[in-house]
Prior knowledge:
Strand order of the largest sheet: 3-2-4-1-5
Order of helices and strands: EHEHEHEHEHEHEHEEHEHHH
Radius of gyration: 25 Å
Shape: elongated
Oligomer: single chain
Amino acid sequence: METEPxxxxxxxYIVAGPIGNLADLTPRGAEVLxxxxxxxxxxxxxxxxxxxxxxxxxxxxxxxxxxxxxxxIRLIERMASESVALLSDAGTPLISDPGYKLVRDxxxxxxxxxxxxxxxxxxxxxxxxxxxxxxxxxxGFLPNKAKARGDALDEVAALRATLxxxxxxxxxxxSLSAMAAHLGDRDAAVSREISKAxxxxxxxxxxxxxxxxxxxxxxxxxxxxxxxxGEAPPASAEEADAALLEAMTRLPVSKAAGEVAKKLGLxxxxxxxxxMELKG
Length: 280
């Protein structure tokens, strides 16, 4: 049975839903959910509650990581003449949720794409953490296996940015301990149940937070915020000399001094003078 024209232009509408409190759905997002020809959702049981809150009776179609390619193809075909809203179980679609392939292929097909900004657990937790927010990296969920998890943490250990992770209660203490081992015992924050009745943010070092949750895994959606590494101590004279001697086996004195200056954060002219002394 064909639906009545929705009043929305045909295309894809990415709707950010609440991460807890239903009242956080924006009026514009609610309007799209009421008017769209179809709403693509991760789980119809979860999204049905939000659609009722928005006053929407629009049909839902499951769309998630396990959807067959033909589901995505059919949705993109429908966007030529219908409006399709994309909704995740919580927060902004595509952020650690399925959907990027749909957006990618819809753009390639020339479909109109509109995003309706709203809640995101990662951004909300950053604002609660009290840690630097001028530069951050969203890491999503760490791998389950210890080796892969350690490799992922080692890859970003030197990055001078705040790190954002999603985590589950049963894994939280172990993950915090791994972060302390691979990143150093940095300042961190654990936020859970954001915008819900039992919202909580705990702060401390990674080892302190790991101990806090070791025997009491928390419930609910969890975000871990880890502060950037501290300033590295300046290189010693012995370290600078060793670096210069090694560099001079490969490079002229001037270039060796420049390379070491960049690597150790020291003054290039001073290093050049010292390199000439060592060479002599």
